[in-house]
Amino acid sequence: MKPSHQSVRRLATPAAMPSASKENIGVYCNPAHDLWVKESGPSVEEVKSGQALKEGEVTIAIKSTGICGSDIHFWRNGRIGPMIVEHDHILGHESAGEVIAVHPSVNTLQVGDRVAVEPSQICNKCEPCLTGRYNGCLEMRFMSTPPVDGLLRRYVNHSAIWCHKIGDMSYEDGAMLEPLSVSLAGMARANISLGDPILICGAGPIGLMTLLCCAAAGAEPIVITDIDQGRLDMAKKMCSRVKTYKVQPGVSMEDAGAQISELAGGPLATALECSGVESSIAAAIYSVKFGGKVFVIGVGKPDMQFPFMRLSTQEIDLQFQYRYANTWPRAIRLVQNGVINMKDLVTHRFSLENAVQAFETTAASAKTGAIKVLIQSEV
Hints:
Layout: E1 25-29, E2 35-39, H1 44-49, E3 57-66, H2 69-76, E4 79-80, E5 83-84, E6 89-90, E7 94-102, E8 114-117, H3 127-130, E9 155-159, E10 163-165, H4 171-175, H5 177-190, E11 198-201, H6 205-217, E12 222-226, H7 229-238, E13 243-246, H8 253-264, E14 268-273, H9 278-287, E15 288-296, H10 308-313, E16 317-320, H11 328-336, E17 346-351, H12 355-363, H13 365-368, E18 372-376
Parallel strand pairs: 11-12, 11-14, 12-13, 14-15, 15-16, 17-18
Antiparallel strand pairs: 1-2, 1-6, 3-7, 3-9, 3-18, 4-5, 7-8, 8-10
Helix pairs in contact: 5-6, 5-11, 8-9
């Protein structure tokens, strides 16, 4: 049953909470690769009345949202593997904001709480859910992955259990807990340890976030690769001891692997591949030692070719990652206590109304120098 206006918990003092006076708008794409901003739900009237809140939900005034590479894929390519944009679709899954309404069934949050939104909606019944690996939920509804609309809106209703309190952390840092979670999940599954020699392929947002995590974990040496010198310079700024390798056109994967190993002072134990590019994965396979590991975090095309016999004769493990599970509390601790500082990653900021320009800036990163672009909203 929908809650009545009186049953939705709010602060008693109107001045203490957002007025929700602006219409809700969202950022849409479609199968024709159009991108636009238009009215979205819940409506401002529903936000004020609470009529759209379901049991266990809260309404969040989204304050900051990061643009992910997957958002660009869904807009420009219309799909990522089997996940296909078939209708008008709202993007965005890296968000933080303020709770402005609470269903009476919720006792873990209250109006005024600052939260980061974990964009998962799971069944809590299947084996992955029951064994704690809910990123593999068989009925997963992940916000921004078609057909589930995303968070790039002014107001969103979301399950309270997936809204993590961030205290006085900035909304920008709160939004970037999602890509940080991707890196933390990769670190855990790849078993990165103190003193491990590590290769990071790709100095985009996830690669640079992974660099921060590897540096904090004490990996040494760390080598990071990219085709863009500006991004490698950013990596050096963020971690002075990282060794950078600029990928050159025409260099074979075998030669690239040998050059990376030489730069590191010897073959590497683990490569964390953050680009999802076939040639980069191959070079990573040629850069690690006998018994090493190539761990793929990046998202790429549906079918690829790998140097199979190199993997086989060198007993190299090839592993993959899909999103994350149980990472938000750890990510919050790391940021709140200054272990991870993500602020240098943010290069551009746009208002929600100018979201199309934000996406264009992200897509043209080679020209604009964009790394992490944030979209900000006022209510």
